[in-house]
């Protein structure tokens, strides 16, 4: 199990970033959450198998078609197993 805590900067709000991330996480079987931050960034936590977490991180670096990701900060954390699926937080 791997756990990654990400902060994504760029044109990532108002471009279906959270919804697209949710759909990709479900497709890959990754648990966790994604939310918008007041400063314009998107924050996400992904937990799952190493391959699946790495795949969603690679996807986040591009994002949905109308997003423009400029920077992705990744903090590796100890997996907790606390999540039951993936959700969009508000």
Structural summary, described in words:
The chain has 90 residues and is of the alpha+beta class. It has one domain (2-88): Alpha-Beta Plaits, CATH 3.30.70.100. The chain has helices at residues 17-28, 50-60; strands at 2-11, 31-36, 42-48, 68-77, 86-88. It has a 5-stranded mixed β-sheet with strand order 4-1-3-2-5, covered by helices on one side. It is globular and about 30 Å long. It starts with a strand and ends with a strand.
Work out the helix count: 2
- How many domains? The number is 1
Rg on CA atoms, Å: 12 Å
The CATH topology assignment is Alpha-Beta Plaits
- Provide the CATH architecture: 2-Layer Sandwich
N-to-C CA distance: 26 Å
Mean pLDDT: 98
Q: What kind of oligomer do you see?
A: single chain
Unreliably modeled segments = none
Strand proportion, as a percent range, falls in: 35-45%
- The CATH class, by name, is Alpha Beta
Major sheet strand order: 4-1-3-2-5
Gross morphology is globular
Which bin fits the share of residues in helices? 25-40%
DSSP E strands, number: 5
Question: For the report, how would you describe the main beta sheet?
Answer: 5 strands, mixed
Structural class: alpha+beta
Q: Secondary-structure blueprint of this entry?
A:
Elements: E1 2-11, H1 17-28, E2 31-36, E3 42-48, H2 50-60, E4 68-77, E5 86-88
Parallel strand pairs: 2-5
Antiparallel strand pairs: 1-3, 1-4, 2-3
Please tag this protein with its features.
alpha+beta; 5-stranded mixed β-sheet
Report a brief summary of the structure.
Helix content is 26%, strand content 40%. It is built from two helices and five strands.
């Amino acid at each position: 199990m791997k756990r990654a805590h990400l902060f994504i900067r760029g044109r990532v709000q108002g471009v279906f970033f959270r919804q697209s991330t949710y759909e990709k996480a479900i497709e890959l079987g990754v648990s966790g959450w994604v939310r918008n931050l007041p400063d314009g960034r998107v924050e996400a936590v992904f937990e799952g198998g190493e391959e699946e977490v790495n795949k969603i991180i690679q996807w986040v670096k591009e994002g949905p078609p109308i997003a423009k990701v400029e920077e992705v900060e990744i903090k590796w954390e100890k997996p907790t197993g606390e999540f039951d699926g993936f959700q969009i937080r508000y």
